[in-house]
Amino acid sequence: MLAMLDSEVAPATTLKPRMHTSPINMSTTSVTSFTVDTGIYEGQKPGTSGLRKAVKIFQQEHYTENFVQAILQALGDQLSGCTLVVGGDGRFYGKEAVNKIIRIAAANGVRKLIIGQNGILSTPAVSTIIRKYKTQGGIVLTASHNPGGPDADFGIKFNCDNGGPAPDNITNKIYEITKTLESYKIIPDISVDIDKIQNISIKVDGKPFTIDIIDSVKDYLELMKEIFDFASIKKLLHGSADKPAFKVLIDSMNGVTGPYVKRIFSTELGVDDTSLVNITPLEDFGGLHPDPNLTYAKDLVNAIKQGPYDFGAAFDGDGDRNMILGKKAFFVTPSDSLAVLAANLKLIPYFQKTGIKGFARSMPTAAAIDRVAAKYGVQFFEVPTGWKYFGNLMDAKDLSLCGEESFGTGSDHIREKDGIWACLAWLNVIAGLGKSVEDILLDHWKIYGRNFFTRYDYENCNAVSADKMIQYIEISIQKPAFIGKKLQYEGKEYVVKRADNYSYTDPVDGSKTAKQGLRILFEDGSRIIFRLSGTGSSGATIRMYIDSYENDPATFVKDAQLVLKPLINIALEISELHQHIGRDAPTVIT
Ligand code: G1P
Ligand code: ZN
User: Fold this and answer.
1) Which of 179, 186, 319, 366 could form a disulfide with 122 if both were Cys (CB 3.0 to 4.6 A apart)?
2) Cα(493) to centroid of ligand 1, in Å?
3) Under CATH, domain 221-448 is a member of which superfamily?
């Protein structure tokens, strides 16, 4: 047995699969699966959102195969005869991975695969299709917002039959299987043209096996048309006798949302193609870092600053994240976006039908939505970072709308966050309120006050130093004397109310998730949070979150970084971040 570390690219093993020599004729053939002996790969532990590593790691012989086999085995009794959805964000290695999945799934007794044409399915589309066709789950080929290409990242994520990312008990099961996996099953010569919409049926080990290559957009588009008032959005976008057209600029960042944006915004809503940019999915995202924030989507920010646009939106590589901008690139923080949608949810036809069951946010997300929940008496939940924690609440019909500060917004229409959904939700709300993005925010803050928020990311830090820093902070904040402590910077004072390492008990199934981030909570509702990223593919990424509440209207229009300066500096002092990791500035500020 071979044991390989994922930190290095292992040499090819000598265990070659026994290949058939000629490709199988898909229309007639009955084929037999066989088993390939393999070696164990260490480190196939799914993180916040699936297994995410450098492409070169996935390209190691048997590496991808092993992980796919582990996913299938984790399905247990559900595996034989099941239907799975397969698709991804179009990044490099995606098509190769789809073909491997076809061959391995067929050999493992899967009954049917539903695959997006060209291997393309946005993460929200996978969730939509799993739910619509009641499949047993899906495999999403994405490293989300991480760069793509031969020298960048790839990822494989399993979604369950509710359409949501596999919860910890399933991902742990997958990981446990990878630790002892000694073989996988395959039919190496199945060769399918996934660029063509078609339906193929063959017999595998005497049982029927079907591959459905489907239109990547159709099911998702149908769902969006059920949720939103397309007619009023269209009216907003085109203007009327008394209202000028509302000009939008949409940026797909060369990720998977391109075909969805084209069909929804151009074909359905009649937006001019010149207002839809980077809408061809590219294997390397055209060199972009497909993460919709002020740093990586700066082309959109500049275009909106200088152009005639009333609204801008960008999405990440796999289409689940979104950034919303108003005129002159007025930035809506994801935490505010969530709160504004919560306050205006009744303008959206879907919620008029389903009612509003509850609101939720991830722990580090600013607490703006908490105030909307309190005002309307809507039940509210705080969960750990990662979309998987919202799924149980939605399945229990306790949750309608939720979001994360990391540009994730979504609802119980599916079990993933949904970038295009968020953009359409905003347009539906703007059409209903008849106000600009900026005025909507200013009016919102007048009612609720403003949660200023920022996140500092220190990427690619030395993992040992990062761990040491987290331990150091944890010890410091758990000293009894820390509670009640007055922390000051340039005249501004914050009094510590509580500090802990956040842990969560799922109210639906009682499962516990510990050590989800260090929290320092202050008397006035402001917060400092430190946690390590669970999606990075190398080194450690430290995230420092700062959430400061202000209810003086004079501060609402101030620059967030200025307002937050005292709390940012207090956080840097408490953590001794510079001393621990030697960085003077973060890699990214959002
Ligand atoms: C990051 C975000 C988190 C999000 C996840 C997947 O995870 O912080 O909110 O759910 O990406 O998009 P992290 O790297 O912080 O573990
Ligand atoms: Zn994503």
Assistant:
1) 319
2) 31
3) Alpha-D-Glucose-1,6-Bisphosphate, subunit A, domain 3 (3.40.120.10)
